[in-house]
Structure to design on (640 residues):
């Protein structure tokens, strides 16, 4: 099997799990470990992408540009990437991140809305960036729709398109089908980004590799939105066992996960009721902390909010609907706030 | 009673929906012409069917008729920038429904009467029409330090113009939340949701307040402006009662007024879920009506 390119997104997806509180010092420490371990790409930005520091997504305690700058300064071999969501970020932030020295931009949209990315892929290419398209909430659409959308991104200048399991809702057959279809129809690379709501983050990533994925994602200790991601150190251990030589130093990753990332965790990331109900209902993972906040404010259950958000077919960026759902559930139960 | 002659420039979906709104209301305007550039467009066929004069010579047909006093521009920002001067030179009021923003932003419930002598007014964006009056309603009770508006619409209701230029929506809407809404700092974020069946347009406003305030007065102000908006956008309503939530912000832990809103379209031409498009045509109609009334009263005075 070919050697996949691994992107570690502890400092982007993990940003959700630390409530956007990363400091430049923490970024330096984590980038140093990942870089020395030989991880080829490290993603750094607000969890919801550049310019994500908002009420809707959660305010960051430190300037994202300071974090990116710290990462760029620290990395010796690794490329620094950022996430970009059109509408949250604009051309202005994309230009500024490029100016700070990122090499890769990952442009993320709900998996039916690829046509809003054209302006940004073109700009990213003008700026000399490597470009990755992120089809979020890929479980909501069949492979045929994802292929159509991925082909649009390819036509705009994407170097790779990811099947992104934002809700951790895909099982292995679903991953195989989607990744294979993209491989068959695209001439660019294909990636897979997992979440662990159904306990399948590693299994699904291995399945994606078997289906031909060229790029995969992980986070140290699985630190990421909701149920978290495929733990980078576990992924590397599994690849070693599969005799896929990534050249990444496992011992160093284990130390980094244990010593640098575990102490940052607000609570252990486990598949508890909130995370399982979120994955089962197919709800975007970064909603979790917002759902907990709303559940507490309105006196309703986390699982019932998740279930209703699933029914309403919410997409990334709709944290405001959490409040709407919680308010309605509370009204239905006669709870007054 | 005499009426003011109006024309619609652009025979696409927006122009067509606006045409039905003008025709179904017996107001101060008389629709004189619908002018597009595609002789085979559905919009022109529909106008003809309703007995309205049509042309496919775009702006030229409108400039040829000195009687036309109000022109609704439902083309594109690029086209409007080209046409604005010619309309002004001929003394025609341009109600600009594109994001061109050549003239001042107007929102009927907030500042229409400040610009009655303007010859070109701009309707911001769907999200701007829906949310800036809500921010204004808070700000007239207590200063809004930071406002963030989230405008969510069904994917099917978002045309290629918006899709190719999300930056423009974000910038224009955020500017209007500051200028019209009165927020010191503002953000605007669009969300496109492809759910089936399609969702109605919804908007959320977060208004961060730095000083003590009378919560009941804020809620009453918001409710009263929502009622006013619904007088010209019948499907506009608040979802639940606005409430205060404490949030961690860059300025400390502060009270944040949360306002949620839904806009259901009137279904004149667009499907009812496309409240985002309906609020644009309904607001344009309202602006046209107010200007027409103003024009007629000014004429009476001079006669």
């Amino acid at each position: 099997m070919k050697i996949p390119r691994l992107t570690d997104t502890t400092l982007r997806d993990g940003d959700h799990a630390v409530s956007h509180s990363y400091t430049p010092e923490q970024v330096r420490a984590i980038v140093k470990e990942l870089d020395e371990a030989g991880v080829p790409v490290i993603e750094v930005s607000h969890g919801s992408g550049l310019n994500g520091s908002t009420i809707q997504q959660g305010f960051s305690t430190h300037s994202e540009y300071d974090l990116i700058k710290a990462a760029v300064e620290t990395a010796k071999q690794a490329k620094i990437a950022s996430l970009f969501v059109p509408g949250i970020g604009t051309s202005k932030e994309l230009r500024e991140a490029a100016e700070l020295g990122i090499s890769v931009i990952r442009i993320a949209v709900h998996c039916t809305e690829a046509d809003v990315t054209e302006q940004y892929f073109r700009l990213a290419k003008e700026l000399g960036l490597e470009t990755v398209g992120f089809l979020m909430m890929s479980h909501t659409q069949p492979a045929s729709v994802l292929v159509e959308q991925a082909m649009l991104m390819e036509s705009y200048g994407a170097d790779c398109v990811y099947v992104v399991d934002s809700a951790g809702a895909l099982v292995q057959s679903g991953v195989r089908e989607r990744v294979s279809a993209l491989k068959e129809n695209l001439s660019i690379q294909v990636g897979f980004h997992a979440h662990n709501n159904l306990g399948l983050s590693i299994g699904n990533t291995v399945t994606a590799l078997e289906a031909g994925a060229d790029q995969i994602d992980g986070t140290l200790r699985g630190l990421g939105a909701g149920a978290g991601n495929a733990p980078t150190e576990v992924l590397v251990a599994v690849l070693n066992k599969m005799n896929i030589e990534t050249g990444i130093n496992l011992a160093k990753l284990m130390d980094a996960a244990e010593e640098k990332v575990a102490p940052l965790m607000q609570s252990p990331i486990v598949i508890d009721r909130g995370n399982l109900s979120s994955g089962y209902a197919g709800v975007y993972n970064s909603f979790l902390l917002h759902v907990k906040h709303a559940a507490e404010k309105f006196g309703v259950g986390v699982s019932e909010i998740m279930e209703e958000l699933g029914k309403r077919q919410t997409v990334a960026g709709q944290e405001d609907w959490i409040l709407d759902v919680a308010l309605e559930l509370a009204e239905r139960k006669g709870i007054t706030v | 009673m005499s009426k003011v002659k109006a024309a619609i420039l652009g025979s696409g979906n927006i122009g067509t929906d606006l045409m039905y709104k003008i025709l179904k209301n017996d107001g101060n305007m008389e629709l004189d012409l619908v002018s597009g550039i595609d002789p085979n467009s559905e919009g022109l066929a529909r106008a003809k069917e309703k007995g309205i004069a049509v042309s496919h010579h775009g702006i030229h047909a409108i400039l040829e008729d000195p009687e036309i006093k109000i022109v609704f521009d439902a083309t594109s920002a690029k086209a409007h920038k080209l046409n604005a001067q010619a309309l002004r030179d001929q003394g025609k009021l341009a109600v600009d429904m594109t994001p061109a923003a050549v003239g001042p932003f107007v929102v009927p419930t907030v500042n229409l009467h400040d610009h009655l002598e303007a010859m070109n007014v701009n309707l911001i964006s769907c999200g701007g029409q829906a949310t800036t009056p809500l921010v204004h309603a808070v700000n007239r009770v207590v200063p809004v330090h930071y406002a963030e508006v989230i405008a969510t619409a069904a994917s099917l209701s978002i045309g290629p113009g918006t899709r190719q230029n999300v930056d423009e929506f974000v910038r224009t809407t955020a500017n209007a939340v500051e200028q019209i809404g009165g927020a010191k700092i503002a953000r605007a974020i669009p969300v496109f949701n492809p759910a089936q069946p399609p969702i109605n347009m919804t908007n959320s406003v977060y208004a961060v307040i730095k000083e003590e305030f009378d919560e009941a007065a804020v809620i009453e102000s918001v409710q009263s402006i929502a009622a006013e908006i619904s007088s010209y956008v019948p499907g506009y309503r608040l979802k639940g009662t606005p409430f205060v939530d404490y949030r961690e912000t860059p300025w400390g832990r502060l009270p944040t007024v949360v306002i949620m809103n839904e806009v259901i379209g009137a279904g004149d031409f667009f499907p009812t879920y496309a409240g985002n498009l309906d609020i644009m045509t309904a607001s344009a109609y309202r602006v046209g009506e107010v200007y027409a009334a103003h024009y007629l009263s000014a004429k009476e005075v001079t006669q």
Summary: The domain at 4-123+281-302 of chain B is CATH 3.40.50.720 (Rossmann fold). The first strand of chain B starts at residue 4 and ends at 9. The mean pLDDT of chain B is 96.
